[in-house]
Amino acid sequence: xxxxxxxxxxxxxxxSNLEDLIRERTEELEIEKQKTDKLLTQMLPPSxxxxxxxxxxxxxxxFEEVTLYFSDIVGFTTISAMSEPIEVVxxxxxxxxxxDAIIGSxxxxxxxxxxxxxxxxxGLPKRNGNRHAGExxxxxxxxxxxxxxxxxxxxxxxxxxxxxxxxxx
Length: 169
What we know:
InterPro entries: A/G_cyclase, Cyclic_nucleotide_synthase, HNOB_dom_associated, Nucleotide_cyclase. Its main location: membrane. It holds the Pfam family Guanylate_cyc. It is a single-pass type I membrane protein. By secondary structure, the protein is of the alpha+beta class. 56% of the residues lie in helices and 15% in strands. The chain has five helices and four strands. It has helices spanning 2-43, 46-54, 76-81, 85-103, 132-149; strands at 67-73, 109-114, 117-122, 162-168. It has a four-stranded antiparallel β-sheet, covered by helices on one side.
């Protein structure tokens, strides 16, 4: 009976350890799923992200009235050449964090940032009638105003200027 009792205790302990391991791995999986969902919703409009998560096909949509905003940093290549890589990363992070805060108060959708290029749309993925041009124009003025007081951490004496383009259609 000692051998059997000993084996039963060992099996119970193994079972308990296995349950703990499964619980731990399930929690890790849930955390990773949340990170994936967050990244997906940052990269895609919420309706597209939900459709992809559910495995349903995403049908292309036609948007009749949309205004796009494009901007880049004037002299970015020169600034980059005079800066350490981490200083360029800090500059873009600081500037686009500022821009992201501004666009939050307008009916717009950030489409993409690539390097020093920043692209925003209004009128999609949620249609807003004929307000798209006004939303982008007001957002552009707010961004332009904020850039006037923006300073680079590593070159505070160099003013940051941006080039802005808009297109409505």
